[in-house]
Amino acid sequence: MEGGRLAHGRASGRARSADGTLQLDFRLPAELGGEGGGTTPEQLFAAGYAASFHATLSVLARETGADPAALTVTVTVAVGPDPAGAGSVLRTEIAVAWPGVGDVRRLVERAKTLCPYAKLG
């Protein structure tokens, strides 16, 4: 991250990819005492996770003959206390809506073994 500062253990500043195609302002959320008005690391992680999981399910759709056009993947990410007592951990929740597909649960479970984001931690 370029030009960042640390506020309450959270980064506020500007993030930029090496090629310049991604440029974001990170801000501590207002509910945590920050100024708000920017992206949080959790939002960015959720977007990447959802895109990767959607792509994985789309590959599985081609293998099974399912139509990925109606597939929706929503990922919610939050920071919570580490059960081991060592700081914090990310908590994720995946919701998949796929109308017209009978065995969505089986495909989601298979996707969890293939998607690189689902393999974290």
Automatic annotation (TrEMBL):
<protein>
    <submittedName>
        <fullName>Organic hydroperoxide resistance protein</fullName>
    </submittedName>
</protein>
<dbReference type="Pfam" id="PF02566">
    <property type="entry name" value="OsmC"/>
</dbReference>
<dbReference type="InterPro" id="IPR019953">
    <property type="entry name" value="OHR"/>
</dbReference>
<comment type="similarity">
    <text>Belongs to the OsmC/Ohr family.</text>
</comment>
<dbReference type="InterPro" id="IPR015946">
    <property type="entry name" value="KH_dom-like_a/b"/>
</dbReference>
<dbReference type="InterPro" id="IPR036102">
    <property type="entry name" value="OsmC/Ohrsf"/>
</dbReference>
<dbReference type="InterPro" id="IPR003718">
    <property type="entry name" value="OsmC/Ohr_fam"/>
</dbReference>
<dbReference type="GO" id="GO:0006979">
    <property type="term" value="P:response to oxidative stress"/>
</dbReference>
